Fold these 3 entries.
Entry 1:
Amino acid sequence: MIETDNILETINMIRLYNLDIRTVTLALSLRDCISKDCGEVCDSIYNKIKKYAKNLVSYANELADEYSIPIINKRIAVTPISIIGESCKNPDYVEIAKTLDAAAKEVGVNFIGGFSALVEKGCTKGDDLLIESIPQALAQTQRLCSSVNVASSKAGINMDTVLKMSKIIKQSAQLTKDQDCIGAAKLVVFCNVPGDNPFMAGAFCGYAEPECALNVGVSGPGVVRAAIADMDKNADMSDLANKIKQTAYKITSTGELIGRKLSKRLNIPFGVIDLSLAPTPAVGDSVAGIFQAMGLEHAGACGTTAALAMLNDAVKKGGIMASSHVGGLSGAFIPVSEDAGMIEAANKKYLNINKLEAMTSVCSVGLDMIAIPGDTKESTIAGLIADEMAIGMINKKTTAVRIIPAIGKKAGEMLTFGGLLGEAPIMSVNELSSDNFVNRGGRIPAPIHSLNN
């Protein structure tokens, strides 16, 4: 028997508290597109994406209408392109990037990820060529996203590539400075990157993934905030955690339903549900708002890291009961530009990069969508990346850095992207020199607990 209260609760989640399916992402292997001729590679990539993704957007829109649940983004993630391109006699990675972008436009998706390289232990010739091409590739495309994994708990931190990526990030920002440096906003550096993540900019189809699969990213920080706000103000931490778990279960169940329905219509396997609470700039759809509902004056107050740790853990415990296949990043995102509460906290100086770094030790990702002054030294950016990679390596978790050097702008000004990317207050960075440290190069060894097989 259907209960009226449950129906009304679901309606309120969607209409009042911004519950949505943040993304449905088609993961697609391009390993059979390898050829010595770059033109043949591009043709094979374009045709394969058209074949598998031709109905992704239309079927997703049909399901959104049928169930009255918004599906915000439709995306594609492909095999790391460094692997595909290096088979060519004369690889042209920018041309491959344009092909990916054209195919994404043809099938109507918002983004395509996988312009990526996995180089935690070192680079092949193809990896080097792809990394060098990233700034031009991002400047000459609209939908393309790029990621580079430079560290892992098993391999350590590839400091040569960390330093190289600091230069690539600045070049990507410089080449797109007329678009508020958006190139850097579509580029992320990872430690322990998962191969089934549906969220951009880090999504790609991992080497161990099947030919194709549908991965779903759910969201709903507004729903969690509202559930906590409705509780007795004197409820203890255990009750708070249980409420978050119950709410996460409901959110994940929605994603599971839509994911399985869509994969069946597309006639491809269902992959994973990513449990992440991904905020938006919309009022009320903020992870920072959850902290306030918990009892903190604002994000950045003492206790913020503890609140985030409990939130992240409770979301995973509740969500995993609603699906047999949980993966991706899963937890709570804290992107500064994409969360209205985080933007406010940064503007009011409640948050700085040091506090954000501490928070990343317990959340899903890392230093995400943070704008820094455009004149920040490359060695300082490399130091920021290395710090974040160390947190992931030591704690055996995924961490990432997506920072945007605001070319021509200083701390206190704003970058404005619009849409889900929002706007980013430019945050000051510690100006003490990291030069001699990061220029040593080589590889920071993996921790002792990596020897566990």
Entry 2:
Amino acid sequence: MTDTPKTPGPDGSGPDTTGPKKPAPRSHGRLKISATLKPRALMEHRPALASAWEARVITLFPAAFPGVLGESLTGKALAEGLWQLETIDLRGFGVGKHRNVDDTPAGGGAGMVLRADVLAAAIDAASDGVPTDRARWPLVYLSPRGRPFDQATARRFAACDGITLICGRFEGVDERVLEDYGIEEVSLGDFVMTGGEIAAQAMIDAAVRLRPGVLGNAASTEEESFAHGLLEHPQYTKPQEWRGRAIPPVLLSGHHGEIARWRRAEAERITRARRPDLWKKHRDPENGDG
């Protein structure tokens, strides 16, 4: 093994110990992290507009956000301040040494339930500066037993000043919190997920894209699926012929009236075949749910 050469001292007898010492290198990960009860703003340096729609998310996993919401058009709109996103870390409101947020179900059973006192404290913090009128600012718990989320709900949320979403975990939340705060329950679909974070991102995306200036083309939201209670018609682009399949001639005719009629007919055909529930509601709005 070869010794590393040492710089001689002033008298040439040994290493120099009189010069200034360099500070010991520090690890990039040695940052002090502490829980805070203040909502965490994502993308801090974005310009905030007075009319910006805001989503506040109560979650055990704030690092999951913005996730896909930070990409593409929603991400660009977030960076430009067309909408805002805040996360409230539920763990910061936990009790005891280990910041517990849940406990066993009353009456027995498997799994754990989010505690009423913990969740209430998080809701109170998330409600700071928020309108108390739920028509202007809904308070929503993402739950598989909630009312199904649809395009009409997305439009309602988009028309509000903002929304607070509660991401559940484990077996759910204490029912008393839902009752006391009058929380609206909304479901992404008839299936069960491990938590509400993905559902929250989906609902935020559906609402944000309807906000002015986000898509840039208002006609896009008027012609897409569910805008008129029907699934969207087929779409085509270049090349004109691909693997023996040609674009329907009517779309290349330049006759806007014929194109509109073709698209309408195709939307009705697809809806009737794939979503008879939507077709029934479309044909008979008053009795579509019956």
Entry 3:
Amino acid sequence: MKIAIVSGKDEGPTRINAFDNALTDAGIGDVNLIKVSSMLSENTEIVPLPHLKAGSMINCVLSTITSSNKGEKITAMTAVAIGNELGCVVEKTGIDENIEKMKKEAIFMVKYMMNKRNVKINEIVVEQSTHVVEEIGSVVSSVIYLD
């Protein structure tokens, strides 16, 4: 299995436009995202995001938050743990939270999921996007399932 991990942030005149702009910033604005749960197959490989055909149906784990509260620091985060047998993904969002604390919590959650399944972790990757809201802002972090 191959996955890409992406993130983006932007503003817009409405909440939906801000979200769409953040998706576009992440490179996934022209596809249809299908939210799935958090499991990866054995020996998953992380690769750069390839060109995705416009209108494609793409499975993903999506972490997102949108705010219209000027000055708020919004963060969307995904953490990926990869093992030989399988992998797990967690998502986390926050408003005005400490980024390092959020990363520690995300890593704890994904390690717990792997430990609960008795799977040795070979690699952990954390991706995040943070933005200070100007008018209406949105952030996304996503694990894109490529095959």
